[in-house]
Amino acid sequence: MSQAARPLRVAMIGYAFMGRAHSQGWRVAPRFFDLPLEPRMQVLVGRHADAAQAAADRLGWQEVETDWRRVLERDDVDLVDICTPGDTHAEIACAALEAGKHVLVEKPMANTLAEAETMAAAAEEAAARGVLSMVGFTYRRVPAVQLARQLVVEGRIGEVRQVRCQYLQDWLADAEAPLSWRTDKAKAGSGALGDIGAHIIDLTHFITGERVAGVSAMLETLVAERPVAESFDGLHGVGGSERGPVTVDDTAMFTARLASGAPAVFDATRFAWGRKNAIRIEVNGTTGSLAFDFEDMNVLEYYDASEPARTAGFRRILVTEPEHPYVASWWPAGHGLGYEHGFVHQAVDLVRAVAAGEQPTPSFADGLAVQRVLDAVERSSAARSVYTDIAAHAAAAQS
Amino acid sequence: MSQAARPLRVAMIGYAFMGRAHSQGWRVAPRFFDLPLEPRMQVLVGRHADAAQAAADRLGWQEVETDWRRVLERDDVDLVDICTPGDTHAEIACAALEAGKHVLVEKPMANTLAEAETMAAAAEEAAARGVLSMVGFTYRRVPAVQLARQLVVEGRIGEVRQVRCQYLQDWLADAEAPLSWRTDKAKAGSGALGDIGAHIIDLTHFITGERVAGVSAMLETLVAERPVAESFDGLHGVGGSERGPVTVDDTAMFTARLASGAPAVFDATRFAWGRKNAIRIEVNGTTGSLAFDFEDMNVLEYYDASEPARTAGFRRILVTEPEHPYVASWWPAGHGLGYEHGFVHQAVDLVRAVAAGEQPTPSFADGLAVQRVLDAVERSSAARSVYTDIAAHAAAAQS
Amino acid sequence: MSQAARPLRVAMIGYAFMGRAHSQGWRVAPRFFDLPLEPRMQVLVGRHADAAQAAADRLGWQEVETDWRRVLERDDVDLVDICTPGDTHAEIACAALEAGKHVLVEKPMANTLAEAETMAAAAEEAAARGVLSMVGFTYRRVPAVQLARQLVVEGRIGEVRQVRCQYLQDWLADAEAPLSWRTDKAKAGSGALGDIGAHIIDLTHFITGERVAGVSAMLETLVAERPVAESFDGLHGVGGSERGPVTVDDTAMFTARLASGAPAVFDATRFAWGRKNAIRIEVNGTTGSLAFDFEDMNVLEYYDASEPARTAGFRRILVTEPEHPYVASWWPAGHGLGYEHGFVHQAVDLVRAVAAGEQPTPSFADGLAVQRVLDAVERSSAARSVYTDIAAHAAAAQS
Amino acid sequence: MSQAARPLRVAMIGYAFMGRAHSQGWRVAPRFFDLPLEPRMQVLVGRHADAAQAAADRLGWQEVETDWRRVLERDDVDLVDICTPGDTHAEIACAALEAGKHVLVEKPMANTLAEAETMAAAAEEAAARGVLSMVGFTYRRVPAVQLARQLVVEGRIGEVRQVRCQYLQDWLADAEAPLSWRTDKAKAGSGALGDIGAHIIDLTHFITGERVAGVSAMLETLVAERPVAESFDGLHGVGGSERGPVTVDDTAMFTARLASGAPAVFDATRFAWGRKNAIRIEVNGTTGSLAFDFEDMNVLEYYDASEPARTAGFRRILVTEPEHPYVASWWPAGHGLGYEHGFVHQAVDLVRAVAAGEQPTPSFADGLAVQRVLDAVERSSAARSVYTDIAAHAAAAQS
Fold first, then answer.
1. Which residue from D minimizes the CA distance to A33?
2. What percent of chain D is predicted at pLDDT more than 90?
3. What is the β-pairing status of strands C299-304 and C288-293?
4. Which of A78-87 are b and which e, b meaning 16 or more Cβ less than 10 Å from the residue's Cβ?
5. Do D316 and B314 lie within an 8 Å CB cutoff?
6. Distance to chain B for D343, nearest Cα, Å
7. Mean pLDDT of B143-149
8. What is the mean pLDDT of residues B355-361?
9. DSSP code for D195
10. Domain map of chain B by residue range?
11. C-alpha atoms less than 13 angstroms from C-alpha of D172 in its C-beta half-sphere
């Protein structure tokens, strides 16, 4: 980053888990990557002035606002980074785009398909005016995932034949864990499906270059009632004796077809004791296979079927070489990256796209594509798992 | 085996892959296990006398017959071991039971649901006469799988909440591999579904103690045409220029519910490049998880959620201790077993059940339960994956 | 095995752990492999007639003798298979060779270097008369180990630069485990060194094709006193209140140089809690690496440094393909083998060598080479770990 | 970090690989951790003004100096962070301590034992004046390593019986990689030994709480001549046709005894093709074992021998829970950390120690302890690997 670089002034709305991660992205990106614009952590927005100021001090933002509408009016804000809960995304994002601000919105892009469609339309209209937008599916930016995509593009596994995906966590497996906004359909939209299932849908779209065309789904709420949180111990609620209903799914399993007809299977749960953040994707092609597990995130496994059977085997590629995506800017081989590096890479890619005036990915259209799958999953599950075609529905909705 | 042990005289029908494995079971079982009856490899049955005699010499059977009906008439045969293709199982098994011979039949028990129902009825009737029968799901007899079952029974993972199963192979992933009886619906009944999907259904039944109650399924033939085999190179066909249709599924993916309502997901394929015999089962319970992969068959992974999070983790239990099922009869800790040991254990368990006059497991009723799932999978797949209830259908069929 | 095959009549001396394993080798080999001679389990030798007869019945030997000298006089014995403790090997083996019997002797070949030298000389003399001999280092015959050797020979890792070996067990880690013959120098010769260290020395010799030329060693007895065994619970002693000294090493660590000068490091212990039979060998060459761990014995890991760094990684080769050593006679890909298959392969290789009149490997000369390393390790350890040259000593001994 | 926090003004000398890592530590620490002092990136020191200014801009340092002596005179510098090559450490560190500046020095603390002894003495003298010092063995600060230490302290593996360590890399395995300062004894002091062997010595000291008491060592230069670098491609030299000697070791293997007498084995190499940064430590205690591999750095493996053998196994503890060291300040469970987080933790621990006026660890005395082992390794290797006692030598040196 040369001293003469023009700034890209960012306003971030929300400062919880995702706000901390996005802040790290903006903070660190220019220290390791050559960027055409200098990201500036201009203003943090939070409803409560004191809490927002404390967060800004901690996270390193220069100023604070308490009303997100204010930052849309400011001339010294170029980009709005939306880290609030999903039910607020559509309103803020559309207003920001309307105000000429570039937008980064955390996933899930929206809580409903209707909101997502509105946002995608707004993004398309804004793009015509040079105002850009992007959704925060940061797992795309893990180097091993990028390498997987590259190998598919290069034909190293041939045509995609099958995909199997899992996203396994266990933080709700304790039936006495209390209710929270994440177990409330009104606020979260859905449960495991939208929270983590969305990631493996997006990763499938990204790695294969194909979209899910239809699904047959089974959603299930494994623990129907939980304690109502009476107090909070840090981030976590502490339950009392009162109980209330869980109104979202705990686990989402679905089979699917990609646009090419290739079958796929998805399994997202927050009840897999012992699995903490196991995002697993295996893609079988006509001439090879790829496998990834986020619990060993610096590794991509690759099987090259053109190798004689005698010496063929899944290769454990440690994706830490300078030849690997993003890695040359970091450390020597074998010195692996962690979770938040995806947010740094996200900042890098967004800054570069904005500077070049090019559409960053994943776009709101990409986010909408995921939302359509989530919607079809819910409709299929409600209709005895009957195969539910996304394209037809999407076409009908657009006509 | 004391010298005074009464013999259990076995007739084995068929002598290909499964015949070799079953022979090893009968041969080795009395050398390592104390058995109440002495299994005797009395007679091998094959249609072609010369080939059958060569097989009997190689495998160590005392005599040969060319017509399976003959062995049913012989007084010196106590048990008929059926290793022929699936389309012959029902006829032979029913006749053998009728003739008062105990029966062991390789899986799949039958090619159709109707055959399986006939066999189960015959087995029930025979059992009343003291004539016993069993299906050859030998993967149940891997020590790590037995340990998994024990831990479930002992409540070490609490109530079963979810199951995820995969059976991944790659031996048909080469689109130029020629047609064979396994790609022919008339002979094989189905493809990946019945060949390998049947195993993970049975393992789910066994480990959880619950049966699959309904499914939503997607079957797919990934390579629709293959070369017709012109010649044979050992066991393997060599394709010519002519092509013919594949009439079975190549991959079977389905979601399911167990009797308790617990969701499950299944994925069986012969197209997963790099996976050779990856039978993977993960069971999440209310207080722990279990995971198994046949490609590392002497290991069971166990997560005990009652352990404090600070020191909890999946334990890699090397299932080679004398305390583990079957192991005390073999080798010291760490000296693992292989694939065919399951056939030895099968022989041991069957001999003991026969001696005790007790029903061995898995019974023909267990085999029928698997067949019902296979049937429901095919019906669901044909009906746009709609959730298909097995119990209702089974009840209707029985009424 | 054709019916016309000439027999190879075996007498086995001893019938404990190794006798059971050798019996399985003789029993099973002709059922899966085409052999030029038919191994016949002729006579089992044990000092106590009743116990020997019970073992012969269980293991399937036709006759029993109580004095090993008797079988040397019998015309119907072609080969003597010595499974007794190490302190008896030299006498029996030399007498058997003298009597014109082929000999298979379990490892360790001998308890002392002097014995081993005598045996090697006897073997060389016998070979001139067409009488053959072999040492039972069966881990050489794990398919993954054979593949490792093949890849080295084919130059797939270039020149050998470094070797690191571990043999980790934990069956003596409990300080209350009682004394046994294995903790008694008079009977066992040494502790971890000769029992398991010998295996990794032989594997290094085999895989690299080079012998250890010198060592710098540290032997240690970690638990100096143990309970005296008062009774026996099956194979295992049960200790009482009396204690006695452990007179062998518990752990053996040594650095070494191969004949080429390449450095190597060895680590053998029976005190590594949680490691049951972890025989681990890693060989780094100028153009690649190989790694093996017996706890996952059907796998060889291979790194090919000629692959571009971007897609290079250790390949997990599942050594279960028909192209792999020994495997075509067994099961389809992915259906792994176990511990005792090494004894089957040993029988196969020995029968073939005898039929061909060719020297089987490992020869007594190979066994002597290992014994020389064991001896040098003890001398180095006694001399403050000073580097101790094997070749010079061996040359001096031979002059 | 409250706004009222007093600053801790840092001057960093050197800005290559380690300078980038240290900068990230200072930058990020206050954003995730509550610190009693606010680290301020005050001044970066580099010999060439332009390059230093560019580095300061990139890395975020406020000012630049070209002579390290200048910063010792400045009142606005509280701490000197030394990231230069090892041959300069002693002079700078001693001068800084003399000037009353706290000191952080990258490892290796020094290139010679004499320098290290001088530094340790200076540190001890400075500490009496309240001036603190620390060595940058950051691998101690990987959460899994900290957890290993905690479990040892808590007695979860009992008494330490054995240690095995490896540090395997492959970046010099290509014989055509050119000469650099790291292959030059004058600049680097030693090769694999001091560069990476030092880390596993320090980790052994840290995890076991015991120091190495003596060693028997074998150093080897595997590639004796390499191309002289003619030009540079980024960080890497590009070799020409001229060749020169490698004057350092390529691989260091040694056995050792800890203070308690427990045997240990060490193996450090930059020639292990396929291993990129495999820092592996296994500790066997009287009641359990621990194992760590940096290539899977968020995992600690733990075997608890008090668990019944039937369900015992190495647990794969994903060290990403809030209960784990440092983790509560970062991300939810399963969202792993990377290499540079160790530098953040180092900054945190150092800031806290300085604020509290307490000795941070590892101290210069700890660094000297490592240096004594390095020295003994070199002496043993030069004396035919004879066991070389560190304590005696150290005592003699101190008398």
1. D58
2. 90
3. antiparallel
4. bbbbbbbbbb
5. yes
6. 23
7. 98
8. 97
9. I
10. 6-139, 141-337+372-379
11. 28
- pLDDT tens, position by position, B63-117: 999 999 999 999 999 999 999 988 999 999 999 999 999 999 999 899 999 999 9
Kindly indicate whether the domain formed by A141-337+372-379 is annotated with CATH number 3.50.30.10: no
The residue type at A73: E
Residues 6+ apart with CB under 8 A from A243: A225, A226, A227, A228
ipTM value, please give it. 0.95
For residue B121, the 8-state DSSP code is: H
Which residue is it, tokens 């069986």?
Answer: B268
Mutation pick from D314, D330, D341, D345 vs chain A, by most beta carbons of A within 10 Å, is D330
How does the average pLDDT of chain B come out, rounded?
Answer: 95
Which is the CATH superfamily of the domain at A6-139? Answer: NAD(P)-binding Rossmann-like Domain (3.40.50.720)
Whether residue A1 has pLDDT greater than 80: no
8 Å CB contact between A307 and A288: no
How far apart are the CA of A122 and the nearest CA of chain D, in angstroms? Answer: 33
Calculate how close chain D gets to C380, using CA atoms only, in Å: 9
A341 touching chain D per CB within 8 A = yes
Q: What is the dihedral of CA B95, B97, B103, B106, to 10 degrees?
A: 40
**Relative orientation angle of helices C49-59 and B17-32, to the nearest 10 degrees:** 160
- Residue C2's pLDDT band (cuts 50, 70, 90): very low
- Using the predicted structure, report yes or no on whether residue C80 has a pLDDT greater than 90: yes
Closest C-alpha to B24, from B385, B329, B347? B347
A168 SS3 class:
strand
Nearest to B80 by CA among B30, B123, B115: B123
B341 contacts C331? CB cut-off 8 A: no
Phi, psi of A112 (to 5 degrees): -135, 160
Closest residue in A to D321 (Cα–Cα): A276
Query: What residues pair up with B134 in beta bridges, in sequence order?
Result: B104
pLDDT at B256: 98
β-pair type (C37-45, B314-318)? unpaired
Burial of A49 (0-12, 13-18, 19+ CB in 10 A): exposed
Residue D24 has phi, psi (to 5 degrees) of -60, -35
* Residue D322 distance to chain C (closest CA, Å): 27
Instruction: Please check the confidence at residue D235 and state whether its pLDDT lies above 60.
Output: no
Tell me whether residues C313 and A309 touch, CB distance under 8 A: no
C-alpha A16/C-alpha A13 separation (Å) is 10
> What percent of chain C has a predicted confidence (pLDDT) above 70?
96
The yes-or-no verdict on residue B4 having pLDDT over 80 is: no
Which range has the worst mean pLDDT, A272-286, B385-399, D167-181? B385-399
Question: Which H or E run contains C283?
Answer: strand C278-285
Render B321-353 in DSSP notation, one character per residue: STTSTTGGGS-STT----TTHHHHHHHHHHHHH
Which residues of A are less than 8 Å from C143 in CB distance?
none
pTM of the entire predicted model: 0.96
Average confidence (pLDDT) over B185-205: 94
Chain B residues touching residue D147 (CB < 8 angstroms)? 310
The token duo for D111 is 């290139």
Looking only at the bridges linking them, the beta strands covering B278-285 and B160-168 are: antiparallel
Q: In this predicted model, which residue has the larger pLDDT, A87 or B235?
A: A87
User: In this predicted structure, what is the pLDDT of residue A229?
Assistant: 86
Average pLDDT, chain C: 95
pLDDT higher than threshold 70 for residue A235? no
Q: How far apart are CA C230 and CA A313, in angstroms?
A: 51
For residue D356, pLDDT beyond 70: yes
